[in-house]
Amino acid sequence: MTDIQIGGAKRARRGYSLDEIAIAPSRRTRDPQEVSTAWSIDAFRFDLPFIAAPMDSIVSPGSAVALAGMGMPAALNVEGLWGRYEDPVPVLREISALHGSGVTARLQAIYAARPVDHGLVAERISELRAAGITVVAALSPQRTAELAPRVVAAGADLVVIRGTTVSAEHVSGSGEPLNLKKFIYELDAPVIVGGCATHQAALHLMRTGAAGVLVGFGGGSAHTTSDVIGVRVPMASAIADVAAARRDYLDESGGRYVHVIADGAMGRSGDIVKAFACGADAAMLGSVLARATDAPGGGAHWGAEAWHAALPRGQRNALDQVGTFAEILHGPSRNAQGTMNIVGALRKAMATTGYSDIKEFQRVEMVVTT
């Protein structure tokens, strides 16, 4: 990012969003069927380089199993409705039907009405384990120490620690802060942690022993982080910055590779493609999947930030449903808006620029369009 002068006393870096950049075609092309979209992290291999975001509007035990059958993992938010309600389906229907100015207050009330049930959390993880899929459990940083050992004991294969921003060093005068490095070292499962959006923050998270780092700073469609607390880093610059930290950490650690996972601001297939071109190894998908007719949210989309008890930094959106999970991932597409057949779009972009896999595609030439 380029330094610019805001005024006499302040300098800032120029950042780029995914809308402000584009991929440049090369002299070589290849058949889309000859490119690989496979992604491996730790001991786990997936046909697609995507993770379904840990949002109640997208991931239920049923949808996690369905998405796994289509080639990608899904992260279940164990602090969400499925960790609080024995049968969340009526609650999901109510949230889908909400409208007007009271939506946020009702979301807060719904989540506050039931505490996270440790037994129910273990039951959900065991259910996924019994289905024979790679089980991904998502936690907030605040409850990681409490819940992570429980979900791993219940059978979680991967743990995602996800917040608006997560740091390796949290300063607190009230209580013992989480020592992320010590915690990850002692946990018997690989950890993906984030978000972060700068080189320094990413490097610190990589040094904790995380298998993957989430790149994002409240930039998704269900976030209002920028409006509420003024924090946001444009995704193209954030991904490229964190990818540079991955390279530096690879040298520093003597060859340890930490995966960069883009998380947010990718509402269309073109955005997802450009995230990989900026250096991402995988993408965490939110609103793209929330548009599915078989998504638990029924066309509504919200994240944990929307029901924060004291300072909500998100909203519940009503999205147009465009097709099933299978059609959104694998097509065929019935529109030209970039909301269906996102795997086909990724394959086409890689083929058009002549690259055979995601790692190679990270070297593609890019241009700034603004």
Layout of secondary structure:
Layout: E1 2-7, E2 10-14, E3 21-23, E4 39-41, E5 44-46, E6 50-52, H1 61-69, E7 75-77, H2 89-97, H3 103-112, H4 118-130, E8 136-139, H5 144-154, E9 158-162, H6 180-186, E10 191-196, H7 199-206, E11 212-215, H8 225-229, H9 235-253, E12 259-263, H10 269-278, E13 282-285, H11 287-290, E14 300-301, E15 317-318, H12 325-330, H13 342-353, H14 358-361, E16 366-368
Parallel strand pairs: 6-13, 7-8, 8-9, 9-10, 10-11, 11-12, 12-13
Antiparallel strand pairs: 1-2, 3-16, 4-5, 14-15
The CATH class: Alpha Beta
CATH superfamily: Aldolase class I
Strand content: 15-25%
Q: Number of helical segments?
A: 14
- Largest sheet, spatial ordering of strands: 6-13-12-11-10-9-8-7
Number of DSSP-assigned strands:
16
Radius of gyration: 20 Å
Secondary structure category: alpha/beta
Question: Could you give a short account of the major beta sheet?
Answer: 8 strands, parallel
Distance between the termini: 15 Å
Examine the coordinates and then state which fold CATH places here, giving the name of the CATH topology: TIM Barrel
Helix content: 25-40%
Mean pLDDT comes to: 93
Could you give the order of the helices and strands?
EEEEEEHEHHHEHEHEHEHHEHEHEEHHHE
Shape: globular
What CATH architecture would you give?
A: Alpha-Beta Barrel
Low-confidence stretches: none
Descriptive overview:
The strands form five sheets. The protein has an eight-stranded parallel beta sheet. The model has no long low-confidence stretch (mean pLDDT 93). It has one domain (21-368): TIM Barrel. The chain is globular and about 55 Å long. The protein starts with a strand and ends with a strand. With 370 residues, the protein is of the alpha/beta class. The longest helix has 19 residues, at 235-253. It has helices at 61-69, 89-97, 103-112, 118-130, 144-154, 180-186, 199-206, 225-229, 235-253, 269-278, 287-290, 325-330, 342-353, 358-361; strands at 2-7, 10-14, 21-23, 39-41, 44-46, 50-52, 75-77, 136-139, 158-162, 191-196, 212-215, 259-263, 282-285, 300-301, 317-318, 366-368. It is 34% helix and 16% strand. It is built from 14 helices and 16 strands. Helix 4 (118-130) packs parallel to helix 5, helix 7 crosses helix 9 and helix 10 crosses helix 13.
